[in-house]
Design goal:
- There is one protein chain.
- This protein is α/β, with parallel strands linked by helices and about 350 residues long.
- The protein folds into 2 domains: about 15-255, Type I PLP-dependent aspartate aminotransferase-like (Major domain) (Aspartate Aminotransferase, domain 2); about 255-355, Aspartate Aminotransferase, domain 1.
- It is about 35% helix and about 15% strand.
- The protein has 9 helices and 14 strands.
- It has helices spanning about 15-25, 45-60, 75-85, 100-110, 220-225, 235-255, 255-275, 305-315, 340-355; strands at about 5, 65-70, 90-95, 115-120, 140-145, 145-150, 155, 165-170, 185-190, 200-205, 280-285, 295-300, 315-320, 330.
- Strands 2-10-9-8-5-3-4 form a 7-stranded mixed beta sheet, sandwiched between helices. It has a 3-stranded antiparallel beta sheet with strand order 11-12-14, with helices on one face.
- Strand 3 (about 90-95), helix 4 (about 100-110) and strand 4 (about 115-120) form a beta-alpha-beta unit.
- Helix 7 (about 255-275) packs parallel to helix 9.
- The longest helix is centred in the C-terminal third of the chain and has 22 residues, at about 255-275.
- The protein starts with a strand and ends with a helix.
């Protein structure tokens, strides 16, 4: 029986990608060797790396002024690596705090210099996206988090800034069309929309690097990784390969225009269902800022939690529980989640409402 996988991360991957990846683990490229045991310096894997980087450029529409890196350490490493490479000695950075991951990024930036939180939604438990903020003149960069997995909010329009714009897109990259050239640096952990945990995508405008006036530790220096073609040290071969397959799947199906249509249909179906059943369910994010990727909601009557959980289990709906810090429920609708799974969830919600609300 099909499992409807609403995991917040690592998230669902396309079935055809998993099939190809599993075959490569046994016999990659007809070499009669596993992908896991070939040299990362081999022509076969270098072709994978080149294709993965080229697909990122193609899907985002970015040109040669940007460099694409596949690194390690997750988005959490980028919380430090970004200020290390962009915040000048004695300089400053502006951050918008929209949740847990932004909070962690702010903590790391404060270790290196003046980090000013210019807007925050903490006053309402991060249930909205702040507006009307502007980075102070002379700020080295403005940092935002495009989608907030725990609290279910997402930017649907991006701020203007006179300086550099940096974005953590870990949980919604490649989910919709946008003008990626608005950003000077984008980073994203792979394990939501792109691949398995273990690699992190960085897209950076080359001209902004090398201007901090500080000595950067080798493994944290973007320019070192650019020069090494993302292979200064041994790269995470399998996560990069699966990411390449997922990007190829996106391209072959119609790219970001196609997946935006799919994701729009899923979120409309889900939120229309929640809003039509107010006696049973309540969304937790401000309607205008609701995330297409992570829909958070609670039961109107929390004493019926066991009954709802039993119905979810019977329908083979997996990993719908909200983050441990906030509770409730979270339907993570990443790119590979089919509309069918959202329909099954909505049908269960309607049945629950009819029985218990």
């Amino acid at each position: 029986m099909k499992v409807h996988n609403f995991s917040a991360g690592p998230g669902i991957l396309p079935a055809e990608v998993l099939q190809k990846a599993s075959e490569a683990v046994i016999n990659f490229d007809g070499l009669n060797l596993s992908l896991l045991e070939i040299s990362h310096r081999s022509a076969n894997f270098e072709a994978v790396m080149d294709k993965a980087r080229a697909l990122v450029k193609e899907l985002t529409g970015l040109g040669d002024e940007y460099e694409v890196l596949f690194l390690q350490g997750g988005a959490s490493m980028q919380f430090l690596q970004v200020p290390m490479n962009l915040m000048k000695n004695g300089g400053s950075a502006a951050y918008v705090n929209t949740g847990e991951w932004a909070t962690r990024a702010i903590k790391e930036a404060k270790m290196l210099g003046n980090c000013e939180v210019i807007a925050s939604s903490e006053d309402k438990n991060f249930n909205y996206i702040p507006e009307g903020f502007h980075a102070p003149a002379g700020t080295d960069y403005l940092h935002i988090t495009s989608n907030n997995t725990i609290f279910g909010t997402q930017y649907h329009a991006f701020p203007e800034t006179d300086g550099l714009l940096v974005c953590d897109m870990s949980s919604d990259i490649f989910s919709r069309k946008m003008d990626f050239s608005k950003f000077d640096l984008i980073y994203a952990g792979a394990q939501k929309n792109m691949g398995p945990a273990g690699t992190t995508l960085v897209i950076v405008k080359k001209e902004i690097l090398g201007k901090t006036g500080r000595q950067i530790p080798t493994m944290l220096d973007y320019q070192v990784h650019i020069k090494g073609g993302s292979m200064y040290n041994t790269p995470p071969v399998f996560p990069i390969y699966v990411s390449m397959l997922t990007l190829e799947w996106l391209k072959n199906n119609g790219g970001l225009a196609w997946i935006e249509g799919v994701n729009r249909a899923k979120q409309e179906l889900f939120y229309n269902t929640v809003d039509s059943l107010p006696n049973a369910f309540r969304g937790t994010a401000a309607k205008e800022d609701r995330s297409w990727m992570n829909a958070t909601f609670v039961l109107t009557d929390e004493s019926k939690d066991a009954e709802f959980a039993a119905m979810l289990k019977a329908a083979n709906i997996s990993q719908l529980k909200g983050h441990r810090s906030v509770g409730g429920y979270r339907a993570s609708m990443y790119n590979a989640l089919p509309l069918e799974s959202v329909q099954v969830l909505c049908d269960v919600m309607k049945e629950f409402a009819n029985k218990y609300a």
